[in-house]
């Protein structure tokens, strides 16, 4: 189930529907220097997945990166109660059942060496920069669908301007109410030394991530 992408980086993509759209989702796993694991945007902790994770290392941190990628966070934390579950403060208001501590952006929320960048929007996402992997780990920073078999989803992606290319769907443009703050965040991300770009929806980018992301946010950066 887990796919090794690079040393210390694995992921698993599964089918997932939202509002009838077949967008799928992806969980990313970073192996930290002490060989423990950071799990980003968790999926259902099935016995098969847990066996693979336990073979990699001890789950240390579970990241719910924004106010939408939380569906399996509680179940995952129940499966790994010794791990720290972190997410945005706004998620605590939406899901008071989740034992979030500390919140993303607070001291100690993430392991040393993992750099968070908060992108202000209604999604309230914090993306993670992993320097030694030259990788940005994100959930909804952008989407990257070459095509999809589900016709209604394909129509949605085409109407949203992202079918066949990496981009931010047009309906999500309205989520960026603080355009100035969002531009600063995207510029900060683009200033980082990364090549690989992980997404939750669609194919991740093994290389060329910085320039592709620059193009995906041209509408915001002007």
Structural write-up:
- This protein has 222 residues and is an alpha+beta fold.
- The protein is 27% helix and 25% strand.
- The chain has eight helices and 14 strands.
- It has helices at residues 47-56, 73-79, 89-94, 151-159, 170-173, 179-190, 209-216, 218-221, and strands at 3-6, 9-14, 17-18, 21-22, 25-31, 37-40, 59-63, 84-86, 115-119, 125-130, 135-137, 143-145, 165-167, 196-198.
- β10 and β11 form a beta hairpin.
- The longest helix is centred in the C-terminal third of the chain and has 12 residues, at 179-190.
- It is globular, with a radius of gyration of 16 Å.
- The protein starts with a strand and ends with a helix.
- The mean pLDDT is 96.
Features:
222 residues; alpha+beta; four-stranded mixed sheet; 8 helices; 14 strands
The value of Rg in angstroms is: 16 Å
Strand count, sense and barrel status of the largest sheet are: 6 strands, mixed
Structural class: alpha+beta
Principal-axes shape call: globular
Mean pLDDT: 96
User: Helicity range of the residues?
Assistant: 25-40%
Q: Tell how many strands the DSSP assignment holds.
A: 14
């Amino acid at each position: 189930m887990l796919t090794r992408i690079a040393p210390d980086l694995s992921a698993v993509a599964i089918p997932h529907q939202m509002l009838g759209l077949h967008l799928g989702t992806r969980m990313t796993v970073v192996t930290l220097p002490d060989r423990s694991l950071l799990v980003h945007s968790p999926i259902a902790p099935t016995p098969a997945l847990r066996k693979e994770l336990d073979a990699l290392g001890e789950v240390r941190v579970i990241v719910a990166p924004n106010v939408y990628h939380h569906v399996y966070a509680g179940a995952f934390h129940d499966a790994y109660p010794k791990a720290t579950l972190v997410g945005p403060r706004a998620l605590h208001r939406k899901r008071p059942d989740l034992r979030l501590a500390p919140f993303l952006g607070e001291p100690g929320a993430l392991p040393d060496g993992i750099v968070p960048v908060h992108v202000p929007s209604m999604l309230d996402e914090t993306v993670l920069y992993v320097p030694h992997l030259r990788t940005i780990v994100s959930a909804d920073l952008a989407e990257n669908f070459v095509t999809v078999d589900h016709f209604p989803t394909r129509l949605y992606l085409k109407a949203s301007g992202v079918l066949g290319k990496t981009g931010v769907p047009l309906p999500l443009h309205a989520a960026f109410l603080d355009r100035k703050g969002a531009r600063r965040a995207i510029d900060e991300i683009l200033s980082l030394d990364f090549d690989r770009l992980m997404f939750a929806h669609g194919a991740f980018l093994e290389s060329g991530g910085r320039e592709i992301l620059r193009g995906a946010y041209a509408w915001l950066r002007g």
